[in-house]
Amino acid sequence: MLPDMSEHACQVVDITGKGATFVSSTVPPVRVNIVAYLEELGRVEVLAGQPVPGGFHVTYTATGSRLQRLQQRIEWLKQKNSGAAETRRHPRFEPKDKNSSVTLPDGRVYTCEVIDISISGAAIKTEVLPAIGTYVMLGKMKGRIVRYIDTGVAIEFVKQMEKQLFTQQVA
Which site among 11, 19, 22, 65 is 20 to 30 Å from 157 CA-CA? Predict the structure, then answer.
């Protein structure tokens, strides 16, 4: 999607942790901000670079931890596509609104940041680390803590989200 809100189909090739090449019949001017919705990566903000035959180069505008997560996801996808075993049952996405809350069984509520989410679970950044197996509420979704991650916990939902509702709220 270009700044004028027009949408154009493209194919991504030669993706790396620094940028990619978009194959498209529409080539925007250099340094134009673009919002791309990429399969298995979600929403990615890029800056148009030099044109190439059939398309143009892009670089990511994300910085810090957001860029690091994008780079990790790209590396994971490369490993997956090279034959590495897939361990996740459902694709994960970065939600539109990352702010949420986690409620413990005793009623205490803590703010958290949703790192990624699927119809069956979520990874959240939080200061509180409930024991593995503890049932919690992430927003309105009931789930249980299944593992610890670097910045928080992973939650498996008791009941999977409906795909249509998930698409409306997350993707």
Answer: 65
Question: Greater confidence, 81 or 156?
Answer: 156
What amino acid occupies position 159?
Answer: K
Query: What is residue 75's three-state secondary structure?
Result: helix
- C-alpha closest to that of 91 among 21, 32, 17, 161: 161
**pLDDT tens for residues 15-63?**
888 999 999 999 999 999 999 988 777 789 999 999 999 999 999 999 9
Query: pTM for the complete prediction?
Result: 0.48
The C-alpha atoms of residue 116 and residue 122 are separated, in whole angstroms, by 6
Query: Which letter does DSSP use for residue 3 in this model?
Result: T
User: Which residues, other chains included, contact 26 with Cβ-Cβ below 8 Å and sequence gap of 6+?
Assistant: 2, 8, 10
